[in-house]
Specification:
The protein is α/β, with parallel strands linked by helices and 284 residues long. The chain has 2 domains: 135 residues, HUPs (Rossmann fold, 3-Layer(aba) Sandwich), CATH 3.40.50; 122 residues, Beta Barrel (Elongation Factor Tu (Ef-tu), domain 3). It is 31% helix and 24% strand. It contains 10 helices and 13 strands.
Length: 284
């Protein structure tokens, strides 16, 4: 049995190259930095449940193993690399090979690595980084692309568009009053955030334009905190589902204050045309 090990945030193209060679995967429910250095813990690319599902889907065809997610606790962080090696022997008696990235570390102080395990009789394949445009693909690089609003670059590194998914919650009816009904998606806490603005997106219901922001033109009716509002482009009424997956394709424009509702309505119509054009460009 081949075991892939890592956190796999985003399950990007580099992660999937590792997972495609594995029968099972070992990861953590939450990022180790949340325990080791909470103030420096990164905003994540996806929720734990979405990540674990994506990891399982990326395992090689016919994989008979499973995805195991450990709780990274202070006690676990304090365990020695030697103790972790013994744990691997005990928990995976049929282990043939460990698959990891070149910078994988484990054990207190991060002293354990692929060479450490090889010295103890483990077969370990540390797979090199996948490079795009001459630089390694990494979760950190993808977070930076999203934070800059560069959804096309994020999608190249991920191998698919970056996705936000959440419960559809009641709004204030402002979009409907403008003639562009929206679904308000409650996004998960702790994830990376794109710049406030308007985006071309794809949903299971079809092409859409999304605004991530506070709707400042609404004045006293504006949101106190950024909200993800999604308008599906359709000639027929669209029933809101309980949850909605939103794939970000491209940044259209920053959020700004308009002179009034008529100006905002005209801009939304233009945003929809832009979203449709960007969507077709992206998908083709």
């Amino acid at each position: 049995m081949n075991l892939a090990v890592g956190f796999f945030d985003g399950v990007h193209v580099g992660h999937r190259r590792i997972l495609a060679c594995a029968d099972a995967a070992l990861t953590f429910r939450d990022h180790p930095a949340r325990v080791l250095a909470p103030s420096r813990a990164p905003a994540l690319l996806m929720t734990s449940s979405a990540r674990l599902a994506a990891v399982e889907a990326a395992l090689r065809p016919g994989a008979t193993g499973r995805v195991r997610a450990l709780d990274f606790t202070p006690d676990f962080a304090a365990e020695s690399a030697e103790a972790f090696a013994l744990w691997l022997r005990r928990e995976y008696p049929d282990l043939e090979e460990i698959l990891c990235g070149p910078n994988w570390r484990f054990g207190a102080g991060g002293v354990g690595d692929a060479a450490f395990l090889r010295e103890r009789g483990f077969a370990v394949r540390a797979m090199p980084f996948v490079e795009i445009d001459g630089s390694p693909v990494s979760s950190t690089r993808i977070r930076a692309a999203i934070a800059a609003g560069d959804m096309a670059d994020a999608a190249r590194l991920l191998g698919r568009p970056w996705r936000e998914e959440g419960e559809v919650v009641p709004g204030k009816g402002l979009g409907r009053a403008l003639g562009f009904p929206t679904m308000n998606v409650k996004v998960a806490e702790g994830l990376v955030r794109p710049p406030c603005g308007v985006y071309a997106v794809e949903t299971p219901l079809g092409r859409a334009v999304a605004n991530w922001g506070v709707a400042p033109t609404m004045g006293e009716k504006a949101w106190e905190h950024p909200v993800l509002e999604v308008h599906v482009v359709s000639t027929h009424p669209v029933a809101a589902p309980k949850t909605l997956a939103v794939d970000f394709l491209a940044f259209i424009r920053p959020e700004r204050v308009f002179s009034g509702e008529d100006a905002l309505r005209a801009q939304i119509a233009a945003d929809i045309l832009a979203a449709q054009g960007m969507d077709e460009l992206f998908l083709n």
